[in-house]
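Please study the protein below:
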Amino acid sequence: MPRQRQPEYGKNHHDSGGKIDRHADLAPRLLEILRDFARDSGIDQAQARIELHSRLEADLGLDSLGRSELIARLERGLACRLSDEALLAATVADLLTLVTLARAGATSLTPANTEVSAAHAETATKTKTQAKPDAVKASTTTSPEAAIAEASTSAAPATEAPISRARTLPTPMIDQINGLPTGVGTLIEMLDWHLERHPSKTHILLDETEDQPRPISYASLAEGAAKVAAGLREAGLQQQQTVALMLPTGADYFQGFFGVLQAGGIPVPIYPPARPEQIEEHLRRHAGILTNADARFLITVPEALRVARLLRTWVPSLQALLTPQSFANATAVALTVHPPPDAIALLQYTSGSTGAPKGVILSHADLLANIAAMGSAVAVRSDDCFVSWLPLYHDMGLIGAWLGSLCFGIPLVSLSPLSFLAQPLRWLKAIDTHHGTLSAAPNFAYELCLKRLRDEDLDELDLSCWRRALNGAEPVGAETLRRFSERFSRCGLRAEALAPVYGLAEAAVGLTFPPSTRGPVVDCIDRERFAVSGEALMLPCTDTQAMSIVSCGRPLPGYHLRILDRQGQVLPERREGRLYFQGPSATRGYFRNPQATAALIQDGWHDTGDRGYLAGGELYLTGRFKDLIIRGGRNLYPYEVEQAVGEVSGVRKGCVVAFAATDQARGSERLVLVAETRERDSARRGSLAQRVRERATEVLGSPPDEVLLVPPRSVLKTSSGKLRRGATRERWASGRLTQTPPAPAWQFLRLWAAGLRAAMARSVRRLPRQLYAGYAWLLFILIAPGVWLGIMTLPRLRWRWRLVRAGVGLLRRLAWVPLTVRGAEWIPAPEQPFVIASNHQSYLDVMALIEVIDRPIAFIAKQGLAAKPWVRWPLQRLGTLFVDRFDLLRGPEDARRFAEALTRGQTLGFFPEGTFRERPGLLPFRMGAFLAATGAGVPLLPVALRGTRELMRGTHFYPHPGRALVEIGEPIWPEDESWRSAAKLRDQARAFIAPRCEQTAADSD
């Protein structure tokens, strides 16, 4: 059926069957459900009026957890199954349209005036309009899994006969078990190998809709690729030139990738836009990649073509922007392209591609060597079936899932990533329905299944076929493995099916895998010993000092690992250091980036940038040496927002700096935006600051923590005109950035005489405060090094915390800061774990809580703080839990970590506002603290801080004399584990804190 256009609300609309009109009464019911949800969530409906035009994020403040909860309630309350696009709906009206289409039997919505909606919905919106030359015309009684079965060798190419669920394959897909076809040296030859033996066999089954998956045979893939190749050659593509693919998961992507190869080009996968409102940010992000890749063509969806033309302005090498429809009339002819095995087959850009694009060079030989090694590690069989929702611009989805399935001749069931995020059950149902034996996902995906699936969802789920559940691409949680195994054992999932793995783009994708028949192995080591010396000393897992680290397996066949210390010396087993590797698929370097290549390859070994240790020949990863700040599920680099803000009228273009800076006092990371302007009028400056903030928010997906408008020449530059971000950040940290920079000589002389007296008077008035500030900083400089050293050396956590409390108390007393504590009797007994929820006023808030609550507190800190070792090390030694509040997909994983900490008896410290501002008043509370308390069934202790803002205001490291007050409320116990209970906890805590958190006249007496 044709795509539905988004209706204009308030008018009558008709589809071909009048379906939408018959559901016009859905609006009142949907609004009723939304308002009930708003009441449960504590959303102020008087201030955030809920109407059809209300924006889910900007007006109602729904984060990822809230949006998922709302979608689940709408599906239950309206008896429908929403499409995957509901996860990205911008307004209540969008949700209504999606509900209407779901009730009418439609599957997707293409919003009006949205040029990239098809990319958002991945392949779900494309099924209805694309031809299906090789589709199986199955009857309503034919099971979907039959479409991926082996066709009869005597059948005509136009038909593909289904086979039984047992899936016995009469023709082996590989010449040798655990090996690739002999005599094949490139991906092009691999596809030709299949075409010669079984052209009509289904290679990919696109699970775009749950009722009728769409098969793609080897012949169909080759035919579509040949058209793309012919079209590219006609457009002027030359040998080894690059072509970017910005396409959603679907037939167009698969055919486009091989079409580029068959035309002699090099594919460069980049990801489609995530949201319409972020399209410009998306294009700016990819301009760096395409420029580094020297891309000549970009293939994208028609809906994104108009805005994608802007890339041609930013990327001079781009000759044309093409769509899959551009190749519809191309004549598929046999091309005589036969690249050697060492020719570049793919540029896989790492996560660092935006700031300094790094395209990993992977040859055909690299890919085939890595795929063969991974196939050996998982013992690929001819009856295997790979089920994947992983994005095809990610190496694990592109190489591990798709190209691995191609090379071993096993069927691939491909789902849209968005379909998994919206309905995690679809992934597991696909494994059951299609008898999937292999599948892979990051750790968060397993957590999302644990979080979102209800017990009744598991009743008819059969996972006994799942032979290897690979877990990689991010740190693997031991508790996640245990809980997933236990919960889904009722579905037939075997514990030994779970397989933590490790890899990186510089090795193609895989580097270490566990034995093919073994489940996870968890190493329990002495936490204190490991933190102090880096030695992984084994302990019983029941020991309270034991730290659990999951094994990522052994090096793949032909690969080697070694661990080096900071001096470059090889470390023995069970000693932590920097991880290096060698192997047959190790990249030759980064494309057009010799400096990064030189840093990557050292004495024939490749630097992974990770740290870990080896034990029993297996790898245990412990973290990254250089952590990046991540906001909204992506790496953040300064140039994105600098370019965007530089276009705002009133801002000096090229004089904008964005940087992340660590706040040591409050244990967090701030994103600071500095823009030069000549504007002096206060009203116009306020308006300009608001426009800058709005533009930055569009680019980043969330607002910067601080926007500073500064006079010309405040932003530091090199002599060649390059921005000095580090030096500017240092000025910000010292509190000097917002001060007026030195004026030119003539201006100084003009103002000097008139302002001399006032300047002298101000200096006299400031002198006491300046003396006090200097004295306070001197105290800190004298006390802090000893405390830091003690934290790093004392063996027991409680001893370290006593030292910290003593240091904080000594600093406060010598700085003459009185501290009043009220309600100390409400602090729970030492054996009772609880959650602290406090308002946030200053960098000093953490110090106040440390002194008042006499026990170790696991404070929740921003992930970016862990990027600096000298800050990360002591915080880790004090039990700090690092989280990324901007990565929406990490929420379930963080919630699990909080629950584990509370189960161990730890006390968690939250600042639910997430940040602080110089102005009085509370910011909106985030839900993390309250969900942690309800989930673990522990009390929440509300704490009101007062006076710390006056002691150190805003972002200035300038202490002032004053006094502080800490008022503790009665512990609040959650009623149950529901969202409503968590929202009620939040409101009760806010009701206690709000009237007590501001300075009064009595406090100053």
Remarks:
- The radius of gyration is 30 Å.
